[in-house]
Specification:
alpha+beta, elongated, 6 strands, three-stranded antiparallel sheet, 150 residues
């Protein structure tokens, strides 16, 4: 008589560990990026907070923490529009040093003109390229020189 043994193998599915109840802006951005397929950054999370779509529920070492459940519940189109707006602004603007180099002015002049409302400034301390070009054209090649304070 032949003894046959039937082996049963249990199929185990590997589950991802549960998400923490709250995460910081960068980690929430990563989760939103996975969820939406968009390149979400911490800056986008800051914008969602500014628009009151996300609210800090805790803090860690002084940094705000946001509910993972609330982030997952955000409308995908809303998150995509925030990302699209950021990317459009980044394409139409330059950071301070690049802006100053573009028109050959000192960055402090650009900073002052931004405060005065003569050029458009926005998120990330960036300057609108169209305003920079217009400013340089109006100056007719002359630099707006910052004089030392005496």
């Amino acid at each position: 008589m032949t003894d046959t043994t039937t082996e049963t193998t249990a199929v185990t599915t590997q589950q991802e560990p549960p998400l923490p109840k709250a995460l910081g802006a960068r980690r929430i951005a990563g989760r939103l990026a996975e969820h939406t397929g968009e390149p979400v950054t911490g800056t986008d999370v800051d914008e969602l907070v500014d628009q009151e779509h996300l609210v800090a529920v805790d803090s860690y070492k002084g940094w705000p923490m946001y509910s993972t459940a609330a982030a997952r519940a955000l409308n995908v189109d809303l998150v995509r529009s925030v990302v699209t707006d950021r990317l459009a602004w980044e394409a139409a603007s330059l950071p301070r040093d690049a802006a100053a180099e573009r028109i050959g002015w000192h960055w402090s002049d650009l900073d002052r003109m931004g405060r005065e409302g003569r050029i458009t400034t926005g998120r990330g301390g960036r300057y609108l390229i169209a305003d920079l070009d217009k400013l340089a054209e109006e100056a007719d090649g002359e630099q707006y020189v910052t004089a030392p304070v005496i």
